[in-house]
Structures are given as C-alpha cells and as structure tokens.
Amino acid sequence: MSNNQPAKRRRLSDESVPRLREAELRKIQDLPVWEARKAVLEGICSNQVYVIVGETGSGKTTQIPKFLHQSRFGKSKIICTQPRRVAAIANATRVAKEMGCKLGGLVGYAVRFDDTSTHETKIRYVTDGLLLREAVADPLLQQYKVIIVDEAHERTLDTDALLGLLKRMQRLRKDEFHIVLMSATLDAGKYASFFPGAEIGLVQGRQHKVDVMYTKQAQESYLDAALTTVLQIHSKEAAGDILAFLTGQEEIDALCNLVKTRGAQTKGAHGQEKLQAVAIYAALPAEQQAQVFHPAPPGSRKVIFATNIAETALTIPGVRYVVDTGVVKQRSYQTGAGVDLLAVVPISKAQARQRSGRAGREAPGKTFRLYTEAEFEKLESSTTPEILRVNLAAAVLQLKALGISDIRAFDFVDQPPLPALVRALEHLHVLGALDTTGELSPCGQQMARLPVDPQYAKILLVAAASGCTEDAAAVVAMASVEQVFVNGRTEQQKQAATQAKQRFRRPQGDHLTALAVLRAFLATGKGKRGEWCVQNCISGRAMQRCHRIFQQLCTLLQAMKLPLERLGDTQDPEPLQRALVCGLFLHAACRQSDGTFKVIGTGQEVSIHPSSVLSGSKPECIVFNELVFTRRNYARTVCNIQMSWLIELVPTYFTKHIPR
Ligand code: ADP
Ligand code: MG
Q1: Residue 317 CB–ligand 1 contact under 6 Å
Q2: What value does the mean pLDDT of the chain take?
Q3: Which of 118, 207, 371, 447 sits at 20 to 30 Å (Cα–Cα) from 600?
C-alpha cells in the first residue's frame, strides 16, 4: 500500500457528497463501501487490476466511481461498464443526483442510441458493448485512467470480450492505468487469476435475515402464482415493498395492469390501503425507469415487477418481500443448431440466492419462491456464461474490427467451444463480413460500425445498395423494441387491438407491417402522436424509442455516406424483402405438409408466432428475426419470401443447405 501520500488524504477528506439532504447523505455514508473506502482506494491504486467483491446494495456501483473521482483521479476520466442499458442509465442518474450535477455534466451515461456524456463528463456509465465499440477507435482505451467492469459475475458475452481486451491492453499500454472488476458473488477467483497480479478486495456487506418459503406443490402457472402471492403479501404482511421477478415486458405489463384492477379490491394489511404497481425492464424508456425508485405514496405499498435486472444490477430501496418465479428469459444456442433460441428457463441456485437477498437489504425480509424445495435442489449451481451458450458472430465481428485477427488464439476467461467459434466465422463469412482469408472485408468494416447485430447490419447495407436504406433502418429500429401493439385487457380492447393491427397489416409480413406503422406514426403531427397511438392500440413508449433509434440509425448511415432512400408507398417491397433474406438467412424456413415450418439450415421445426400478422396464413417460405420458445418453437417477426431468392441471394449457404 504505497500510495498513501498526504496530498491524497487531504483531498479525500475535504470533499463530501454535495447537495443532498442531510438524511440522505447520512444514508449514503452508511453504505458498507463507505467503511471500506480507504481500503478500496488503496487496493485500486496499488494494483493494476483490483477485484472488488461485495453484496448487492453495498454501494459498489454508485460510490466507488465517486470515491475515485474524489481521489487523485479527479482530473482523469473514469468509466464504469454495466451489462445492461437500464443499469447504466439508472446508476448514472443516481450518481449525478448524489453529486448534485446534471446528467451529461460531471456524470453521464452512454448506451446504444443514447449518449448523454459530454467533454465535461468525468464519470461515465456505459454498457460493456458500447465500450467494446469505442475500442475500435481507441484500441487501448487511452482516454481512461480507470476502467471499471461492473457486474463481472454476470459473464455476458460483451463483458467476457472486454475482459480479454483489457488483458491485451494490460500488456500493451505503458502509462499508468487501473482496471477494477466488481462482482456481487464470491467466485471472483476465476477472473482474478485471469489477470496476472490481480488482487481481490472484499467489501463486508450487511445482510438481514431473510425467511425463504417454498410452495408445497409445483405451480402450473408462475404468473397466476405470482399475482396471488403478491396480493396475499399485501393483505397479510407488515409494511414493506414487494419485488417480483418475471421474465419480460409482456408479463410485466400484464401483471401491472392486473394489480391495478385486482389490487384496488384487495385490502392491505397495516393500514396500507393501496397497492401501487411499477415496472422495470430493459425496453422501458429512461424517463420511466426513474419511477421505480420513487417511494410509494403514503398509505400505500409498492410492488415492483422486474426482470432479472433487479437481481444484482439495480437496488431498489424499501423492498422487504421478494416473489421469485424461478425463471428467467435467456438466449441460448441450441447445440449444433447455430441459431439462438430465446426461452424462459429455470434460474440457477446462485440467482435464486441473489433474488432472496433483495428482501434483506434494509431489514429482515421474506422470500416466496414459487417452486418447491425439491425443484430448487435440482437447479444448476450457477448460470453458464453467455460465451458458452450463444451465437458468437457479433462478438467475433467486434474483435475482428479491433484488429484481433486470430480469434481462436484470443485469451478469454472461458474459451468458447471451437465449433461455436468456427460457426460464428462461417456465419460472418456468408454475411460477407470476412474475406476468404478470414480478414474483415470492407463490408465487414462497415458492418462493425453499425451498432446492431451483424445480421441487421447486413440488411442495412444490402438495402443501401438497392434503394431502400431508410425502410431497412425503420425495420431494424422496430426490431429493437419489444412490443409495439398493445394487447387489450378486456374483450372489447382485444378486439380493438386486432382491428388496429389489421389496418396496418401488410401481406408480406411483420417487417413491412412495422414499416407501415412507423410511417403512419411519422406522418402524424408531433402533437397528435400520443392520441394516435392510443387510437391505434400502439404503445406510445415503444414508438418513441423506436423513433429515436430510427433517427440515430439514419444519421449514422448518412455519416457513412450511404444513400438514405426509401421505397415509394406504391412500389414493390421486394428490394426490402430481399435485403431481409441476405441478413436473416440462418432464420429461413419452408412450410411443410403439416403446416409447420422447418428451418432450412438446421432442420428445427417452428411455427409462426401468434403475434405475427402472418399467423394463420400459409406462406411457402419465410425468414424471421427471432426464434422463441413457449411450449414450442416460434418464429417471431416474420417475412414472407420466395424460395428461389435463397439460392440466388445467399448461394454460399444454400448450396450447402438445400431448401426442401
Ligand atoms: P451495489 O453496486 O453494491 O449493488 P449500488 O451502488 O447499486 O450497490 O447501490 C447502493 C445503494 O444505493 C442501494 O442500497 C440503494 O439503496 C441506493 N440506490 C441506488 N440507486 C438508487 C436510486 N436510483 N434511487 C435511490 N436509491 C438508490
Ligand atoms: Mg452494482
């Protein structure tokens, strides 16, 4: 611990958290990391790589970047990565408030399609994917003195790629810089030993006792069980908010709505009459995420319906009860299939423990696991890192763009299986991103500049060559938001929703329908768009986000000197359909005699998702954005195509995988 100069000491004690109410200030200084502040700073200063392990809620994410800023790194840029955009935004917002500055001042965030940071910004919260992209222009991340990789235990693909890159940087960068890894779980030994000379520091958490309850029998529907349990807690248990883990936007919105109606009829225990439901999930716009942190109004109890974002990445104050459905929506690569499948799967024991822990942050709490103890015992002990279970094409493209030509020799914390790497290289080759020697082609370089998955980047580039870039940008933007059409609650609303969808329906499928929706939205006067959304049973929030992404994609495409052309309304949509084929060929499927479809490259059987405008119709051949599993494999966001296009447009792939 050689860095204890008096100058540093003085600065540390001089500065305190500015402009917060006394009580709040005291609460912050009460966080476990404050006790460990000196040790944490010393650990970081005296080691190039320092791993900080501490219970969720102990103050790592919000306090440590601030400590660093208030130490001798005051003039340097500090970057802190998060696996999720919601966490980057929420934490930056919180820290800006604690430090009494505006977002984009001293503290800022940058996530895909949304960058608030400015030249003034010294503490920057970003997604790990965004930092990877920044590394293309600045491979050694020279502008940062301290790089904090937060939530390292999550082991997302981007985090793992970043860790590999940082290790390379450690070898190549000669100036003084520090790498800090933060994790909520104890198995940090693995990434610590990945970096030569890394030290581990432990922040002692304060966890209250949490009673864990299991169901006696397995539950048929975790959604029904979750709703019943939430209402029971509200009517029987002492004061305290409820955090319920669900798997995605659709479920969360549905339960929020049900609580609004049913919760009003359920009388709360202990004078807490009202039950207020709030939501938090990835696709929620930044402005609405903030709501989840507001305390419930006096006399009411809050229930937060969240995805696993609230497991470790965000700590929401006030929670005393956790409802754990035991499931999570996860992307995984089916062995041998080469196609990612999005499915609701059981969580791991480690995740179940993290979820329980959320109930005991401020006082003793209770966790209601909506599964039996025997089911718990059968769970995997920890979650498999993403790098071992997803399509690697996006990560490989980024690494190639960073000048790492031999991906197989790249040092990862966990080496991805060779067949998965080979498949990613093949995928990129067919997309035209790699030339025959495996180097990035000019097309690949352009693809790497576009902040979307390689298949979408390809769609944009092909569209640019065929006069429909703007339409493709609309389709890609629409693919980035979870759900545009709102499902009605009552029969009448459901009918209205179906009719609205019918108005925009295009026979070519969901992509062109989405394009029609966005065009109609943009054709509506700015002040009338909200009303237009309501009338058409369309989510205004989703449209706003989509619109923002669309604008940013257009700006970027223009900056890349690609012509921003669009199909005329009466014109044939074929160029756009063809562009979709060029990007989505792994997701091409043909109809079989029984009416289901077979994915050509893999032989998987799929059906068209009920939410698709093509559900119920009988196209011969389709491409789709996503494969999801609920009871069976479903193709989501589907476009009708001609089978002959496959060989014509993607011969390298379809001469190997012959349709039919
Ligand atoms: P860690 O990273 O160790 O999990 P955080 O730094 O995220 O911890 O959170 C520290 C504490 O700050 C939490 O216990 C929580 O109570 C509080 N906190 C974090 N974000 C917010 C917010 N947006 N609003 C209010 N309190 C917050
Ligand atoms: Mg954190």
Answers
A1: yes
A2: 90
A3: 447
